[in-house]
Amino acid sequence: MSSHREAPEISKDPTADNTDVYAFVDPADPTKVNLIANFNPFEIPYGGPNFSEFADDVVYTINISNTGNGLPDISYQFKFKTVIRNPATFLYNTGPITSITSTAWNRPQTFSVTKVVRAANGSLTSTVLGSNLLVPPCNVGARSTPNYAATYETAAVQALGTGRKVFAGQRSDPFFVDLGSIFDLAGLRALNQAHLIKLPVVAAMNGLQGMNVHTIALQVPKTELTVGGTNPTSPTASSSVIGVWSSTFRSRGRLFDSSTGTYKAFGDAVQVSRLGNPLFNEVINPMAVKDKWNSLPPSADSQYAQYVNTSELAGLLPVLYPGAFPNLDAFNKSNPAKPRTDLNAILLTGIPASVLGGAFTTYQNGTPADMLRLNMAVPPTPFASANKLGVLYGDVAGFPNGRRPLDDVTTIELRAVAGLTIPLTYPTYQVDTIVKPPSDAVRDGTSNTNAPLPTKFPYVATPASGYATKPPVPATG
Amino acid sequence: MNSSNRRTFIKAAGAGAAAVGAVALVPSATGSLAEGKAVTAAVPSAVLPAAAKGAMVAYIHDVSTGEVSVMVEGHEVTVTDHQLVAKIAHALHSSNKA
């Protein structure tokens, strides 16, 4: 779930594949916002000798729409450059890599960050914020990358002018989900006996356990992201809300050059992957439209609203769990049909303050656009007291008001799709017992079983080590 | 935003040497291309432009339109030249491999 291998075409192009996007007000410095995008799903830590890396022929972007129109008013664009120091060896490193600048690393990467701002008249201003920035090596193991965290992590967090910092490199995947069960006909292991095809009830398993990703994390002042550089102070003002998404671009043409054995890029950069809210392209869009969706900006999402208003997963739940969702089943069969305006607000337009009891809003201007919307005027919740179920359970600094790495977005979205949020827009709807407290039985059931999340930037944990990580144990059942 | 406008956005970043505050301009020679319109091909000449070197790809999405997208790394133009398309198509279909 989220966006690992979520569409047929991008699943064949992992280095350009967005896996997750996070946006949250910094708990340590509430004047700043953290924007984090992960790529390259399912990195096996011991995947040598050619360990995972960013692609030189991909432009990675983190985009902001502060006007709410689903177009990038601000785009941070990241380009990487890889060199081979010693062409005469197959080794990733020719000895212990004792620092981020060690020449023992045979395939170092550097990157640049460019900020592009679109003015109201459509003109673009491009500013290079940093270049020759350093990427740390992959966590190969104790011999090659000794004392990984201490050796590289401070050096890898780099300043980008005044008030900004950036990190780009390998991290543990902070996302957690029972992939093995959820994609086996929407199975939730705790509800195995309620499923149409019954299996023994067992504990959930985090399918991302032991897996790494490549992270780009950027911390910027809030005032850099608002229209006119104003400081967002009103939780009920749309001007405090930003829409965030990540996208990747490749040259339109790619030909294999037999003279070098490598691919060469030709033509303009075109978008090949996109991610705002977790889930959207994964289980909202049908398979046949996913690739096209990945090539479009959020402003084009009105054509996909039909898949939100009539959620396929919401229709499947009463079928796959007979008798468990009677009220959802009846809602689905309403005549005339009732669109899922609750999901529409959460995923496409942002949620008006009136629906949230007047406390805050994530609504911008009503343009249907899949963006992770963050109201920057809502104070952050200290991570120690945060509720990983976010806004629906009283923690208004969590998903779907932005997203923190700790948020259990799978459970939140499962419950929303299963009807928990229908009363937001259909107040007389009675949520099925299995979905609401005290049952709360609809749950993914996993938690982060990778390295614990750090409480400081870049907020994504040290990558799993190639040497120390145990391979999964195969089973054929 | 249409796809060509998004390309412009990325192009603006590609012109990243622009100083802080400078407007990221798209060269006028490619402006019409950024709008996704094909331009008429220049008069053919056996003499290559001075800047032309190395690899170049010509992509014909639909031979009936006569449009040829000519691409180098990071840049492309689309020209309309029915004769060129016909010449290329004949080359393919008259070869032994066609």
General description of the model:
The complex is a heterodimer of chains A (477) and B (98). Chain A has one domain (10-424). Chain A contains 10 helices and 12 strands. In chain A, the strands form 2 sheets. In chain A, strands 3, 4, 5, 6, 10, 11 and 12 form a 7-stranded antiparallel beta sheet that branches. Helix content of chain A is 15%, strand content 24%. Chain A is α+β, with helices and mostly antiparallel strands. Helix content of chain B is 32%, strand content 17%. In chain B, strand 2 (57-59) and strand 3 (67-72) form a beta hairpin. The radius of gyration of chain B is 16 Å and the shape is globular. The termini of chain B are far apart. The interface between A and B is medium-sized, with 32 and 32 residues.
Cα separation of the termini of chain A = 22 Å
Treating each run of at least 4 consecutive H or I residues as one helix, how many helices of chain A? Answer: 10
Look at the helices and sheets of chain A and give the structural class. Answer: alpha+beta
Question: How would a textbook summarize the main sheet of chain A?
Answer: 7 strands, antiparallel
Task: List the defining traits of the structure above.
heterodimer, A: 477 residues, alpha+beta, 7-stranded antiparallel beta sheet, 5-stranded antiparallel beta sheet, 10 helices, 12 strands, 15% helix, 24% strand, globular, B: 98 residues, 4-stranded mixed beta sheet, 17% strand
In summary, what is this structure?
Chain A is α+β, with helices and mostly antiparallel strands and 477 residues long. In chain A, 15% of the residues lie in helices and 24% in strands.
List the helices and strands and how they pair.
The complex is a heterodimer of chains A (477) and B (98).
Chain A: E1 18-25, E2 32-43, E3 58-65, E4 74-82, E5 109-118, E6 124-134, H1 148-156, E7 158-159, E8 165-172, H2 179-182, E9 212-221, E10 241-257, E11 262-275, H3 280-284, H4 287-294, H5 305-309, H6 312-320, H7 326-332, H8 341-349, E12 372-375, H9 409-420, H10 422-425
Antiparallel strand pairs in A: 1-2, 2-9, 3-4, 3-10, 4-5, 5-6, 7-8, 8-9, 10-11, 10-12
Chain B: H1 3-14, H2 28-34, E1 39-40, E2 57-59, E3 67-72, E4 75-80, H3 82-93
Parallel strand pairs in B: 1-4
Antiparallel strand pairs in B: 2-3, 3-4
